[in-house]
Amino acid sequence: MTSTDAEIVRNVMDQWRSAVNAHDPDRVASNFADDAIFQGLRPYSVGPAGVAAYYEAATVGMTAAYEVRETRRLADDVVLGYLSVDFAFPERPTLSVNLGVIVRRIGDRWLINHYQVSRLG
């Protein structure tokens, strides 16, 4: 069975969301390729170690909910996803952002190869 582009992105991002919601920075980072470019709301990093450090510093209790808005197949093993994400916090308002990801099949896994957040409004 062949997965649709949206299913591929959702499968990867479901794993990401589960790890974010569990405040498990190492598990979040395990969803990223070794050479992944990561741009959250602070300076960018390359690779899983930077991702883990970013999410280690995140507020405990922060959760993420997302919706896939668009996908595009860039190559056989590369899919672009455009998402809306709401990060909810225990003691401050929800932060809504746009998220662009590029997921790439590496071996038998799809991993995030590029992650770019931008704020709405």
TrEMBL record:
<feature type="domain" description="DUF4440">
    <location>
        <begin position="10"/>
        <end position="112"/>
    </location>
</feature>
<dbReference type="InterPro" id="IPR032710">
    <property type="entry name" value="NTF2-like_dom_sf"/>
</dbReference>
<dbReference type="Pfam" id="PF14534">
    <property type="entry name" value="DUF4440"/>
</dbReference>
<dbReference type="InterPro" id="IPR011944">
    <property type="entry name" value="Steroid_delta5-4_isomerase"/>
</dbReference>
<protein>
    <recommendedName>
        <fullName>DUF4440 domain-containing protein</fullName>
    </recommendedName>
</protein>
<dbReference type="InterPro" id="IPR027843">
    <property type="entry name" value="DUF4440"/>
</dbReference>
